[in-house]
Write a structure and sequence with these properties.
Helices cover about 75% and strands about 0% of the residues. It has about 400 residues and is mainly alpha-helical.
């Protein structure tokens, strides 16, 4: 009886009053002990109100039913398809929307709707994957900022491929503790490409020089990532480098002369197809036909063999400097010894010598920077001690 009067009244009431009355009816559905007849009548009235011309009425219903698991499912699904001002609370909070519903809504909804779904606390992997695949940048950012959602690794890779050029997305991804090392490398690669293009477009450096600087910075970043990776992440990183064509002889020589033997061994194992134990034995042997055969089987140019042989020999004599503090740096003493050995070796070609001389210059500059940093730190310490004494 009460619902019948409500239906008659709501046809002529002002929009604001209709909205408040609808809010009361929705609350009654959730908390009142309605008889079966009254509940059926109330559901009919709520379904009718979905066609109300005022979004205020439909919004009032959405706000009450948004997080309720006892709300009428048909009403909730209809509200989820309404305009954004009505649908957003339901999209973000309703437990009655299935993963299939949400995937469809991601594909067909507005940017605001995608963002609301991305903020859900119980977002399932298929829905996260849908946002990664078709979501707008704003929705993608909302997804990766949602720390309660576990985004699959393949979805993170897809996000990087689609939106890795955007600084906000790149920085948010890099701040995630669960970001796989291969994804970090992909982000660094995108950043390197972006910066190289930017510098070249501004004519600050020539295109070739800008590309060379970016490639050197990327190589250092790769070794830094490798130095802090666990065994499983290292395997994935090497596989990513191999698939992307970045696993070059130059990178392996840089790793070897930076003390990262794990990366060199795992990379040669993947490239050659030999067991890791066999590769380790050949590296330990240090030279001769075994090393040359290993490098050839790994697809590395024969012209680089003298450098690998010299690096292993000299490294055993002076000791390989293990990466410290998560940063890999070229060992200047080792680089200079390898360069001197290759300059005496007729099998070393000009390209290899150019690469080693570039390594030597980089190592010298890095050592000089570290030395100056130490001097500044000593001066600051002396000043602080003098001030305390005064």
């Amino acid at each position: 009886m009460i619902v019948r009067h409500f239906v008659n009244w709501v046809r002529t009431a002002p929009a604001g009053e209709r909205a408040e009355a609808t809010r009361a009816l929705a609350r009654a559905w959730l908390v009142s002990d309605l008889s079966d007849d009254d509940r059926a009548a109330a559901e009919g009235a709520l379904l009718m109100l979905l066609d109300d011309v005022s979004p205020l009425v439909r919004r009032a219903m959405a706000e009450v039913f948004a997080a309720a698991d006892a709300a009428p499912v048909a009403v909730v699904r209809a509200l989820a398809l309404d305009q954004d001002s009505v649908a957003l609370p339901v999209l973000e909070y309703s437990p009655l929307l299935s993963d299939t519903d949400l995937v469809d809504l991601v594909a067909t909804g507005s940017v605001a709707a995608q963002c609301a779904i991305a903020r859900r606390l119980d977002l399932a992997a298929p829905v996260a994957a849908a946002i990664a695949e078709v979501g707008q940048p704003e929705a993608t950012l909302a997804l990766i900022e949602n720390v309660l959602v576990e985004v699959p690794a393949f979805s993170l890779s897809r996000i990087i491929a689609r939106h890795g050029h955007l600084a906000a997305i790149r920085e948010t991804l890099l701040a995630r503790d669960d970001l796989p090392t291969a994804c970090r490398l992909a982000l660094v690669t995108r950043l390197s490409q972006t910066l190289s293009s930017f510098v070249a477009e501004r004519d600050w450096l020539g295109a070739d020089r800008a590309r060379g600087v970016a490639e050197e910075a990327l190589a250092r970043a790769v070794l830094n990532l490798a130095a802090t990776s666990c065994e499983d992440d290292l395997d994935l990183l090497i596989d990513h480098l191999r698939q992307s064509g970045q696993l070059t002889a130059g990178l392996l020589l840089r790793a070897l002369m930076s003390g990262n033997l794990d990366l060199v061994g795992e990379a040669l194992a993947q490239l050659s197809g030999l067991p890791a134990s066999r590769v380790a034995a050949l590296i330990d042997a240090g030279g001769g036909a075994g090393l040359a055969a290993l490098l050839s089987r790994a697809g590395l140019p024969a012209s680089t063999t003298p450098a690998f042989r010299a690096a292993l020999k000299e490294g055993r004599e002076i000791g390989f400097a293990a990466p410290a503090g998560g940063l890999s740096r070229l060992n200047r003493r080792l680089v200079e010894r390898v360069l001197a050995a290759c300059e005496r070796d007729a099998a070393a070609d000009a390209g290899l010598l150019v690469l080693l001389r570039r390594f030597a210059m980089e190592a010298a500059r890095e050592e000089a920077r570290l030395f100056c940093d130490e001097l500044v730190a000593m001066d600051e310490t002396s000043v602080a001690i003098a001030r305390r004494a005064a």
